[in-house]
Design brief:
alpha+beta; Nucleotidyltransferase, domain 5; 5 domains; seven-stranded mixed sheet; six-stranded mixed sheet; 19 helices; 14% strand; DNA repair; excision nuclease; UvrABC system protein C; DNA damage; excinuclease ABC activity
Length: 600
């Protein structure tokens, strides 16, 4: 369907075109609000005839992606997701990340939602099963390349230098493919048998290697153990809708285990036509999927259910069924998927998760501290000094999980004598919020959380500074400021020694695991504040080292200063030079020479 300017605003498919088109021109009560709105702009209906219904389904998807019609349900993010590609058509297959899946004789696994998780999966795989990641063109024998670092740290068996033959390498590739396909039980069983065989042969060194590998594999699949009596591969789908935005939650079950969950947002979804939105999602999602499970579990019957089943079966080469469970294990999983979709939409409304690419660490930190509002802006503070010289402070900012370098601020310590980090922290916090109370546009954005580099002492100093600034509210010098109200801003401190998080009012610190992403985010922000402070400190120190008495003389800039030092070699030699000697220096006129003699 096209508008008056020829733009495609809706794409659909039909077995009987006359019946389908007439349905859009029926009584208003029989059409949805979105359809009624669309029909006001439709001026032309065009059509393409295909040989089969499956062809029509594929063509519909292609046209939706090509034209992005306003009134079609569309995947909000149409980017290419990353895959793991194993080049099984080479003598020594390699594994790497790609965003383009093709029918080229290789094996693809994915897609993965986040590139970071894909890189972590690849890193873990090369630890468990040494498979090459390089791009060298290898033959079956007589490879004369030099082994790289991966060989020396046990992440590649060195086929580039004929350190392993093709049959032994193929065993590694098979284990990689089994693991990526979700068949972790087979990998665990085989590793256990190899460990026991090596132990019986008294080859304890090899047995220990198999034991360590087995431990890593079991650790990698620990979070996947949502077991069932079934060993089937299934995709379980739930859907929830608010206004015109729907959220689809997809749970990937492989070998009876819940391996992964993904969510997608659909635009222009009508709450009264969830089945239509779900049908559009399934058609678009599985069109580019490399792997389709035998069973796709749905929350409701959808349009063209038998047609989509036939298309998926033809695509996969095996029978694929769309199933709407009424009870049992699959029904429980489907309820879980729907509940997750509803939670995501609720979080979206509250601006906790405000995009599909939100930093999860921000949400976890908010929950950890028991805060009601999302952490849109976090400010971190640090002090840098060399004894009592060149003491400075820094403020760095994280907005929506990303560094906001334009919001960074630096402070030169003015009122503190000696090396007193607590007093220095108190000074920079006080100066920052006094300027906010005075409605200084460089400081008028207030944080949702403040991070202090240090322990309880620095945290107490920051608290004292905040209490002092609140006591200034309402005083004459700040009464004219439009934004002179300072809210109760949460504070935390991160101590460097064992990375403890101190919170005001709590005697015991919060200690997170070393591999916790929330801790990593806080550490990165703390380190950025430290880097910014140290950079400013070094700049001041270098400036003082390069300063000289010549800087105080009028009309002696950097070029004349350099020319004088190059000619005479030192300040003492310049002091002893005659007027004629100074005039002999290129670029020094008489008036400047007289100033130099007078000053020195």
């Amino acid at each position: 369907m096209k508008a008056s300017d020829g733009a495609v605003i809706y794409v659909g498919k039909a077995i009987r075109l006359r019946t389908r088109v007439r349905s859009y021109f029926g009584r208003e009560k029989s059409t949805s609000a979105l359809t009624s709105q669309m029909m006001r702009y439709v001026t032309e209906v065009d059509y393409i005839v295909t040989e089969t219904e499956v062809e029509a389904l594929l063509l519909e998807n292609n046209l939706i992606k090509a034209h992005q019609p306003r009134y079609n349900v569309k995947l909000k993010d149409d980017k290419r997701y990353p895959y793991l590609r194993v080049t099984v058509n080479e003598p020594f297959p390699r594994i790497h990340i790609t965003r383009k899946a093709e029918n080229d004789g290789t094996r693809y696994f994915g897609p993965f939602v986040h590139a970071r998780s894909t890189r972590q999966t690849l890193k873990q795989l090369t630890k468990l099963f040494p498979i090459r990641t390089c791009t060298l063109p290898l033959a079956e024998v007589r490879n004369k390349y030099r082994v790289c670092l991966d060989y020396h740290i046990g992440r590649c068996p060195g086929p580039c230098a004929d350190k392993i033959d093709v049959p032994d390498y193929d065993e590694i590739v098979q284990k990689v493919c089994q693991f990526l396909s979700g068949n972790t039980n087979a990998v665990v069983k085989e590793l256990t048998e190899q460990m026991q065989a090596a132990a019986e042969a008294l080859d304890f060194e090899t047995a220990a290697k198999y034991r360590d590998t087995l431990k890593d594999v079991q650790q990698a699949i620990t979070t996947q153990n949502m077991d069932s009596v079934s060993a089937a591969d299934e995709d379980v789908i739930g859907i929830a809708v608010r206004t015109d935005i729907a959220c689809v939650q997809l749970l990937r079950v492989r070998d009876g285990k819940l391996l992964e969950r993904e969510h997608y947002y659909l635009n222009d979804a009508d709450p009264e036509s969830l089945a239509t939105a779900l049908s559009a999602f399934i058609s678009q999602y599985y069109q580019n999927a490399v792997f389709v499970p035998k069973t796709v579990v749905l929350p409701m019957q959808i349009e063209s259910m038998e047609l989509i089943e036939n298309w998926l079966s033809e695509k996969q080469g095996n029978r694929v069924g769309l199933h709407v469970p009424k009870a049992g294990r699959l029904r429980k999983l489907q309820i879980l998927a729907t509940k997750n979709a509803e939670i995501l939409l609720t979080q979206r409304e509250q601006n906790v998760v405000y995009s599909s690419g939100v930093e999860p660490a921000l949400v976890e930190l908010q929950e950890l501290l028991g805060l009601k509002h999302p952490l849109r802006r976090i400010e971190a503070y640090d002090i840098s000094n060399l004894g009592d010289r060149f003491a400075v402070g820094s403020m760095v900012v994280l907005e929506d999980g990303k560094p906001a370098s334009a919001e960074y601020r630096r402070f030169k310590i003015r009122s503190v004598e000696g090396q007193d980090d607590f007093a220095m922290m108190q000074e920079i916090i006080t100066r920052r919020f006094r300027r906010a109370l005075a409605d200084d546009e460089k400081f008028n954005k207030l944080p949702d959380l403040m991070l202090i580099d240090g322990g309880k002492g620095q945290l107490s100093a920051a608290q004292a500074a905040m209490n002092f600034c609140r006591s200034l509210q309402g005083k004459t010098c700040y009464s004219k400021a439009a934004s002179s109200q300072l809210p109760d801003i949460p504070l935390i401190a991160l101590a460097k020694r064992i990375e403890e998080i101190f919170v005001p009012g709590k005697s015991e610190p919060i200690v997170l695991r070393e591999d916790n992403p929330t801790l990593h985010m806080i550490q990165r922000l703390r380190d950025e504040a430290h880097r910014f402070a140290v950079t400013y400190h070094r700049r001041l120190r270098q400036k003082s080292l390069s300063a000289s008495v010549l800087d105080e003389i009028p009309n002696v800039g950097p070029r004349r200063k350099q020319a004088l030092l190059q000619h005479f070699g030192s300040i003492e030699a310049i002091r002893e030079a005659s007027l004629d000697g100074l005039l002999s220096v290129k670029g020094i006129p008489r008036s400047v020479a007289e100033n130099i003699r007078k000053h020195l």
